[in-house]
Amino acid sequence: MRSFRFALRDTLRLIRRSPGVSGLTFLTVLVVFFFVGSSFLLALNTRHVISVVEGELVIQAYIQPKGNLDAVKKKALALPHVKGVRAISSEEALELLKARLGNQSAAVTLLGENPLPASVEVRVDKASSVSGVARELVSMPDVEDVVYAGKVAEKLARLSRFAEVFSLFLLVFAGLAGALVLYNTIRVAIYSRKQEIEVMLLVGAMPGFVALPFVLLGVFWGFTGTLAASLVLGILYKSFVTSVQHTLPFIQLLDTPDLFLKLAVVLVGGGIALSWLCSWLAVERHIAEAMKPS
């Protein structure tokens, strides 16, 4: 405990002695994790927008004249990848048609008997499931025909797979780039105190005791930098979402109350862990070089 207090005192001393290096490292951590957080939000919103569009895909299954509407609905609900089924009677279908025609709805009365069949609207969880669910529906004895946007579903399924790969690549690239930049920045900051490390080792200080203040310094930079990055990212993203809602209201971006709390926890936790690792690797390298026999 006493060694930790000494290490904490030395950490504060290092911050005061080199405000320029400390400020540069803080700014680097802020920029790096702002980029990482932006990449994370981009990946989340890409998946969210695609999932919303996928949820709007509807398979329309028309029932035979003597078919059982409720039985088809129950069978459809039991199918895998189905997240919602709506039964539409022939009478309801006629009312919907009249509502769509508006002022021309009087023309429907010229048809005499209602020619519209009953149907079920089936919504699936993702675009790649549309074709399989449609095949299951058309094989049912009470179903006469199935209509769905096959080409749209296929293109959306390919887009969904691409978005998953792109999101993973973006996050991995942002993480690796952030780790590399952060490591080099911390290594340069520690290199400026190379002589101090050598002197401490020469007077008999243990390597762990020598390394601890620099590791704590890196953790401090990681914590403060990622916390600032989370605040800046939250403010800018909130402004961006508001702007999109006013100009492009049909695009639904993620804007839940707990989104930034979770993002801040991930960024700060990741920043502390990454800063600790980079600081330890950087100072360990200098300690190993200083302890080599000349």
The structural class is alpha+beta
Order of strands side by side in the largest beta sheet?
2-3-1-4
Helix share bin: over 70%
In total, the number of strands is 4
Strand content: 5-15%
Q: Number of helix segments?
A: 9
- Taking the alpha carbons of the first and last residues, their distance comes to 34 Å
Total tally of structural domains = 2
Mean pLDDT across all amino acids? 77
Our Rg estimate from Cα atoms comes to 31 Å
Question: Looking at the structure, what is the overall shape?
Answer: elongated
Written as H for each helix and E for each strand, in order along the chain, the element string is HHEHEHEHEHHHH
**Model regions low in confidence, pLDDT < 50 over at least 5 residues:** none
The description of the largest β-sheet is: 4 strands, antiparallel
